[in-house]
């Protein structure tokens, strides 16, 4: 199958997830956790990392998690699959290696201070950051997943992607809500 056709199919899957509607609001069908895990599985198909990050001989595609992730069990199901022709490994994000083994980090329940401290480290090693926190993208994550009125919504912070030297494809940007960094207004010192 050609790369173009493969991306087209992946985009269709992502759009279907994006419009999953009330499927997980009912007792049958995918849960919110299933939808988020499926979105994380499909997101790398629409991302370009710097060439040195994803060397063609890398043995696995590491999806790391930091903090408590409510859908970790569903993420672990992905370990039976492949992303970019590499088997998926789901593991805890290890700060000891500077997060360099991670291609994608799912940021769970950590404090704002912990997130603020970790973001520069993520950027240094070109990690795609994904979360489902309130205002996650505005606070520096590249992608934030949220459920709004029973639909999967994707918020993207292009400034955060640029800092991590990650390029997001137009197909993903077309179904996403683009947000900007939240800028804290600091008091302006006025000299008399």
List keywords for this structure.
29% helix; 8-stranded mixed beta sheet; Rossmann fold; alpha/beta; disordered N terminus
Question: What would you note in describing this structure?
Answer:
There is one protein chain. With 192 residues, the protein is α/β, with parallel strands linked by helices. It has a single domain, classed as Rossmann fold (3-Layer(aba) Sandwich). Helix content is 29%, strand content 22%. The strands form 2 sheets. The chain has an 8-stranded mixed beta sheet, sandwiched between helices. A two-stranded antiparallel sheet has the order 1-9. Helix 1 (3-18) runs antiparallel to helix 2.
Topology readout:
Blueprint: H1 3-18, H2 32-42, E1 47-48, E2 61-66, H3 72-77, E3 82-83, E4 86-92, E5 104-107, H4 112-124, E6 128-131, E7 143-148, E8 151-157, H5 158-163, E9 167-168, H6 170-173, E10 177-179
Helix pairs in contact: 1-2
Mean pLDDT: 83
Number of domains: 1
Distance between the termini: 70 Å
Low-confidence stretches: 1-11, 15-27
Tell me which CATH architecture applies here.
Answer: 3-Layer(aba) Sandwich
- What is the helix tally? 6
Strand fraction: 15-25%
In sequence order, what are the helices and strands, one letter per element? Answer: HHEEHEEEHEEEHEHE
Assign the structural class, choosing from mainly alpha, mainly beta, alpha/beta, alpha+beta, or little secondary structure: alpha/beta
Number of strands: 10
The coarse overall form would be globular
Short summary:
This protein has 192 residues and is α/β, with parallel strands linked by helices. The protein is 29% helix and 22% strand.
């Amino acid at each position: 199958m050609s790369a173009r056709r493969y991306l087209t199919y992946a985009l269709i899957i992502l759009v279907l997830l994006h419009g999953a509607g009330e499927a997980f609001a009912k007792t049958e069908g995918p849960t919110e956790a299933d939808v988020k895990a499926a979105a994380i599985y499909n997101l790398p198909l629409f991302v370009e990392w710097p060439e040195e990050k994803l060397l063609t001989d890398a043995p696995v595609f590491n999806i790391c998690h930091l903090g408590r992730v409510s859908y970790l069990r569903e993420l672990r199901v992905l370990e039976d699959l492949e992303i970019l022709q590499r088997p998926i490994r789901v593991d805890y994000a290890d700060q000891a290696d500077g997060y360099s083994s991670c291609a994608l980090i799912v940021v769970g329940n950590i404090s704002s201070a912990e997130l603020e401290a970790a973001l520069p480290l993520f950027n240094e090693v070109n990690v795609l950051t994904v979360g489902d926190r309130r205002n996650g993208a505005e606070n520096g994550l590249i992608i934030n997943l949220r459920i709004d009125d029973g639909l999967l919504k994707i918020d993207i912070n292009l400034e955060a992607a640029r800092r991590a030297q990650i390029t997001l494809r137009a197909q993903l940007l077309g179904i996403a809500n683009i947000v900007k960094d939240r800028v804290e207004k600091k008091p302006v010192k006025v000299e008399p």
